[in-house]
Design goal:
heterodimer, A: mainly alpha, 14 helices, globular, B: mainly alpha, 13 helices, 0% strand
Chain lengths: 316, 292
């Protein structure tokens, strides 16, 4: 187990280095580099910009700048927001919880619905239900998340008046129920794509599990179909889903950004767009790197979990 | 020599098993039909409609669908929605296609190189793929689009450089398994150059998965363009795209819901079609992979 862990840990560190190089490249791609916004300031001459560049060490070779930048990241010095001067890491931290709440709820919804649809599709293969689920999943994968959100707001807020159109809580209320009330629509919207993905994978995984020899043995022993499904199939089919959940993280974050914009949800996605609007590059860069780190760590955790549950993985 | 080649070639390409299987895939045929319809409508439609996509008519603001000759209604500036939708379709489909071509090209080059060379070159390339895949695509695309002055060409390039990784992974796996086959060893023994073996001997045998990935890549590129244009960092007005038509739609959702519903339906239709076609191609070309 420890050899497996060490191996995975090393892989993740290598990946983080590559991720940081990509991020650093993006930062330097911005026209005028990190000082772009001063170029537009009429109060600053070319000389001022050069002096500032020298002061900030931007005239050094790129690889030294990279090492310096990466070393600061590791130490937790992610720079300061252009907008109010607060530390980037704390700004990101303030918005992390709202995003995690949205992502967590919608992922839980997607797993529940997708597991049920997938298993039912596999046990009733080629039935009308299976066919509708297959076509439905493909259409769901093609619907732009923000459009689904707009339609949701139109029907459930404007026409039916069941749920609020946005924000995370009502000012002056803020009870748990109030939070839940605000959470319903955005998390449903965000979960749609993932229900589709999850149900497709779950169907395949269930079919795989159903064709295994131990299922035949169980059937031969006279175990009831229901018990086979609950005890032998679901457990085995859910295992690969842990890896899938890790793999889905980038797309969940992408969906979260769009959903947060439509529902004015105060998470990382909204912060990212606001910061883009203000050309607040330290925060934009911070969020970019942070989201990638979140993904790498999420995958690492998924691998550790699956290795703990499934001895075949760590022994292979 | 030519006679032998002519003899050994299959009867007619449209009699092949792949085409047969594709023709039996109803959803794929539906996808082809929908896309043909969309492309034709976008190509010809604007000439048939009595309005210009940029013609502002402040007396006809917020006309609901089926008002006079405004078949799909008008927008907050009184511009005809139908003609704008079709003009936007040209932009969105063109960006989607070009992004697909470029991302398939990058993905194939990286995949073939990594798969055939292997060793540290292959490892470095594939870890780069992993690195790019760790970024949620929209964060990367937005950060680039916000700084690089978005034109349609630039948007296509930005989408391509952030979405070539899936193709690279698929091609790499395919090439790695083809590398040790007899015909490649034979080619090596004959003394063919590495580039010749990679692109003339191996690549044609890996075309199936590449074509499938490409059809799904169009779908993804159209979606991604819609996302960033909706958020205001993609195609810039007055040039319409399906995404930027939705950009201001949210604030008029109560009074003019068609502004949101119609362009979104067009996006969904186009993306669904390409996903259906991709699914049909996967069945027809017998490509096995675990992606949706």
């Amino acid at each position: 187990m420890s050899a497996f862990l060490l191996n995975r840990l090393l892989q993740s560190i290598v990946l983080l280095v590559i991720v940081s190089i990509i991020g650093f490249t993006v930062l330097n791609l911005m026209p005028g580099g990190p000082l772009a916004q001063f170029g537009l300031d009429p109060g600053m001459t070319q000389k001022d910009v050069e002096r500032l560049a020298a002061q900030l060490g931007l005239n050094r070779p790129l690889w030294i700048q990279y090492l310096d930048w990466a070393w600061r990241l590791i130490q937790g010095d992610w720079g300061h927001s252009f907008r109010d001067g607060s530390a980037v890491l704390s700004v990101v931290g303030h918005h992390l919880l709202a995003t995690l709440l949205l992502m967590g709820t919608s992922t839980a919804l997607a797993i529940a619905a997708g597991t049920w649809i997938g298993i039912r599709g596999a046990t009733h293969r080629y039935s009308l239900f299976d066919y509708c689920a297959t076509v439905g999943a493909m259409v769901a994968l093609s619907v732009p998340t923000f459009w689904f959100g707009l339609i949701g707001i139109y029907i459930f807020t404007l026409k039916l008046g069941w749920v609020p159109a946005g924000n995370m809580y009502t000012i002056g209320d803020g009870s748990v129920l109030d939070y839940l009330h605000h959470l319903i629509l955005p998390s449903l919207v965000l979960s749609l794509v993932h229900v589709a993905i999850w149900s497709r994978y779950m169907r395949t995984a269930t079919l795989d599990a159903l064709s295994q020899d131990f299922i035949k043995t169980a059937r031969a022993k006279g175990v009831s179909e229901r018990r086979i499904l609950l005890k032998h199939v679901i457990g085995n089919a859910l295992l690969p889903m842990i890896t899938l959940a890790g793999m889905q993280l980038p797309s969940i974050l992408t969906g979260a950004l769009v959903t947060e914009t439509v529902f004015t949800w105060p998470g990382m996605g909204r912060l990212f767009l606001d910061s883009l609007g203000y050309s607040d590059y330290p925060v934009v860069m911070g969020l970019l790197i942070f989201s990638a780190i979140l993904v790498v760590l999420g995958n690492l955790i998924a691998d550790i979990v699956i290795a703990t549950v499934d001895p075949r993985i760590r022994l292979a | 020599m030519t006679a032998i080649v002519a003899h050994s070639a299959p009867a007619r390409w449209w009699h092949s098993r792949a085409v047969n299987r594709f023709m039996r895939h109803h959803l794929a045929l539906l996808g082809i039909a929908m896309i043909t319809l969309l492309v034709l409508a976008c190509a010809i439609g604007p000439y048939a409609l009595p309005y210009d996509s940029l013609h502002i008519d402040l007396r006809a603001r917020f006309a609901p669908p089926l008002t006079g000759h405004h078949y799909l209604g008008t927008d907050p500036l009184g511009r005809d929605l139908a003609v704008r939708l079709l003009m936007a379709g040209r932009v969105s489909l063109a960006v989607g296609f070009s992004a697909m071509l470029l991302s398939t090209l990058i993905g194939t080059l990286v995949g073939v190189t990594a798969g055939y060379r292997g060793g540290w070159v292959g490892a470095a390339l594939m870890r780069t793929v992993d690195g790019f895949l760790s970024y949620p695509s929209i964060f990367l695309v937005l950060a680039l689009a916000a700084t690089l002055r978005p034109s349609p060409v630039m948007i296509a390039v930005i989408i391509a450089v952030t979405s070539w990784m899936e193709t690279a992974r698929i091609v790499e796996a395919e090439v790695r398994s083809l590398r040790e086959r007899e015909f490649v060893q034979a080619a090596r023994m004959v003394g063919l150059s590495r580039a010749h073996i990679m692109f003339r001997e191996i690549l044609p045998n890996a075309m199936g998965p590449i074509i499938v990935a490409a059809s799904l890549a169009v779908a993804r590129a159209i979606l991604l363009e819609a996302y960033i244009s909706f958020l205001g960092y993609g195609i810039q007005p007055p040039l319409p795209s399906w995404g930027n038509m939705l950009n201001g739609a949210q604030q008029y959702l109560a009074s003019a819901p068609w502004l949101a519903i119609i362009p979104g339906a067009a996006i969904t239709m186009a993306v669904t079609s390409f996903n259906f076609i991709g699914d049909g191609l996967r069945d027809a070309l017998d490509v096995r992979n675990d992606h949706i």
